[in-house]
Amino acid sequence: MKQRLFEPYTVKNVTLKNKIVMSPMCMYSADDQDGHAQLFHLAHYESRAAGQVGLIITEATAVLPEGRISHEDLGIWNDAHIEGLKDINDAIHRHGAKAGIQLAHAGRKANLRGEIFAPSAEAFSSSMNVPTEMTEDDIHRTIEAFRKSAARSKKAEFDIVELHGAHGYLINQFLSPLTNHRTDKYGGSREKRYRFLKETITAVKEEWDGPLFVRISGEEYHEDGNTMDDFIFFAKEMKAQGVDLIDVSSGGVVPAAIEPYPGYQVKFAEQIKAGAQIDTGAVGLITNGTQAEEILQNERADLIFLARALLRNPYWPKQAADELGYPLEGPRQYTRAW
Q1: Residue 225: DSSP 8-state
Q2: What is the pTM (predicted TM-score) of this model?
């Protein structure tokens, strides 16, 4: 049987050397509280590139200061952020990996001092701040921030842009009937709830002509939330707009008790891939090479996104290659141990 995990994957003008992706994970380490990359970020991302990950996507990177999840998040709302992000990309690229950025806005899940914004003036929980309901001017300003951040992403030499539409953050808040109770053109029917993401994609593509991914939550764990039929509708709309891949996670829209198990989110990626005929990325307790290979062999998803597995072991690709009997080449400096 032909092995799939270490085959190249091409999207638009970018070819990944394998199908292993480092999933965006917040590090809460921009300790200047102004969104700038630190030495930690450089070491953190470069080590995974040296470990032979094909694509490394940086953590949720805020398009506006009030869009941060925390004061320690990375930012891209200012041209001053470009240099630090480019340094990270230079480090990633020198190991033959590609670099992606997840453009994000936390909406009502921003845990910040000062005013925060959301589609509707409802707090995530009793311990979180109540957001200000966005006016149409606020919406247009935020969409413009995504556009400008896409332009900065190009200057910082990212290869791929991903929009964060999952985990209950701003784009997800507009998409979900659990969090979007607007009565204007941005709320109500699923077509109207999609409008914010639709206009954001359009704005980003004015500046960004490279591969474009979107992360969504494919399950909201609430009976009144979006259904798989809704997610397939959104995915078809995104495909029509030129989105290349849907990165499928789950949860985070409202507080929920989730019992994860190995590969517990893969079925959502599989259903969206089949229903919308679009490439997907699978994530969620994928821990070994055999498991990853099964997903690809059965065409349940097109890329394997790893999170905790790569926190535990930056050289997970080598572990998976040994398990699958694949002769993976590593950094020449590590040849004696590789």
Answers
A1: S
A2: 0.97
